[in-house]
Amino acid sequence: MAELNAASMRDELHKIPELGFEEFKTSDYVANKLENLGIEFVRGVGGTGVLGIIRGAEPGPVMLLRADMDALPFKNPDGSIERVHACGHDGHTAMLLAAASRLVGKIRRGTLKLLFQPAEETLRGALCVIDSGVIDDVDIALGLHVRPIQDIPAGTCCAAVQHVSSIFVKAHFTGRTAHASRPHLGVNVAEAAALFTNAVCAMKLNPNLSWSCKVTGIDAMSSAPNIIPDKAVVMIDARAQTNALMDEMLAKLEAAAKGAAAAVGAEGSIEVMGKVIPAAEYDDDLVEEVRTSILEVLGPDKLAPNCATGGEDFHFFKKHKPSIKAAYFGVGAGCAPGLHSRDMHFDSKWLQNGVDVLVDLTLKKLG
Ligand SMILES: [Zn+2]
Ligand SMILES: [Zn+2]
């Protein structure tokens, strides 16, 4: 079968945007292409995911190439939801299919796993894939993402996207109600919430690493303005460049909640909302190989500096199996006005760069 074209597949996939764990048409599309290519595949991986497998005749590492497939929901004025490929995952699926069409028949050693992952935007897709056991035998994992104009120029690639660790945290405070005219009989959690907020704003962490910790909501309202409130919740958005820094931040948040509560005689605790999204932890040698591939395949003027934004559930793979050598590169596609904008657009022609790097690196490892 002839090589598949990433640009035209992206344009087709763009017309069938589906939300996480609902990628039915998208996974049909992927399965159909893999079948036509004669590539063995499994459906229903982590829900709606698809796993293509190409086995080499000689022993060697198991290498995983990962694309995500889901779109994003945007609310219409009438309350209905419109699904839009506003993060470029249609492009990722297209790049991996195009790479597969060039790799079929060329894998000599080891095993190549082509993972079309569901539900990245919910940050649960990778965890479901892990539960399916697909990651257990993986030695090398490579991911990629189209980058917006804010990150790197269209037509370039960067060897590493330095995703940060991120999490939402709720601080809970419990006090005692009383008539506001007799505040000494109550324990006012609005005061604990205010002290905690100040402690969060005064947090100090290593300034050589990037991090941010913001109060994004305070609810300390009692049922009437003349009642001392006894329940308060403060919402936090926390981000840290490394997983160790995130651990330190969470410990400081807990100490701040307990300390702020103790200062007014209340009880304080923190609740981590879901699983902490791990920061990128890459294998330096593999990132260097990605950089070399970009230089060799695309040319020295096409190598962009590494960029650092957002979070990615791809990093749960290494958290699950720390021996995995991981890398994740950026494909400058000129996405504008920016990722997650409802009208995000880019020229599909730039996807070819991502395909070329994927193929080059895979053949160096398994060819
Ligand atoms: Zn996204
Ligand atoms: Zn994305």
Short description:
The protein is of the alpha/beta class. 32% of the residues lie in helices and 29% in strands. It has two domains: 6-163 and 280-366, Aminopeptidase (3-Layer(aba) Sandwich), CATH 3.40.630; 165-277, Alpha-Beta Plaits (2-Layer Sandwich).
Could you explain the architecture of this structure?
It is a single chain. The protein has two domains: about 5-165 and about 280-365, 3-Layer(aba) Sandwich (Aminopeptidase), CATH 3.40.630.10; about 165-275, Alpha-Beta Plaits (2-Layer Sandwich). Helices cover about 30% and strands about 30% of the residues. It has nine helices and 14 strands. The chain has helices at about 5-15, 25-35, 90-105, 125-130, 190-200, 245-265, 285-300, 315-320, 350-365, and strands at about 40-45, 50-55, 60-70, 70-75, 80-85, 110-115, 140-150, 155-160, 165-175, 210-220, 230-240, 265-275, 305, 325-335. Strands 1-2-6-3-7-14-8-13 form an eight-stranded mixed sheet, sandwiched between helices. A four-stranded antiparallel sheet has the order 10-11-9-12, with helices on one face. Strand 1 and strand 2 form a beta hairpin. Helix 1 (about 5-15) packs antiparallel against helix 3, helix 2 runs parallel beside helix 3 and helix 5 runs antiparallel to helix 6. The protein starts with 5 loop residues before the first helix and ends with a helix. The relative contact order is 0.19. It binds zinc ion (2 copies).
